[in-house]
Design brief:
With about 130 residues, the chain is an alpha+beta fold. It contains seven helices and two strands. The chain is rod-shaped.
Amino acid sequence: ILLTLDGSEGARCTICEDHADVGIKVCRHGSGRDCAFQQYEGRIIGCIAVMVVGCLLLVYAIFLYRPRSRKEREEAERERRRQQIISDNLGTMHKTKDEYVEAIEFLLEQRQTRTPARMIRNFYRGSRLWTCM
């Protein structure tokens, strides 16, 4: 782009400008740098567009981009799958229990509770009177 903007020494061109308020068109002959933009206008606009895209990519890379390695992505996917399996298994584990199973569990819980009668019985069984009989 610098060579294009600088122009070449032998380049000659005609530069015309429209003056709407007067209603005439004024043309002049130019050479060197005067002709650079006139002859290479498309190239210069294209170069500026490429530089703008490059600057946008630079800003993205510096401020927004957070690199993640393949290992981190695989671990995140593995954790997501594991959580999915756990949630699926929990859904099947929360099924209602059979009435008989619930009744048996209730009776076993009642058998484990401490009551005064059970405390006296356990005390008696631990004494010498029980072992003598």
